[in-house]
Design goal:
By secondary structure, this protein is mainly alpha-helical. It has a two-stranded antiparallel sheet with strand order 1-2.
Length: 70
Amino acid sequence: MLDRIRSTERYARGLAAAVAAVAALVLAATMGPAGARAEPPSGSGGQVEQVTEQGPGTWPTPTGSAGPSA
């Protein structure tokens, strides 16, 4: 026959599980993504292209482009 588990033992197991879960979350949070870099990739050149809206039914065109020729 199974013996009853005392409530203090049950609470101790729960506390140990909670401490293990928090430790795992803290370790995962401090690791960060693999291969994180502080600088942008060299292929982008650091330039950003600004897009403006022309109105409903038209596609936005990048600023500075000639657009469609009429």
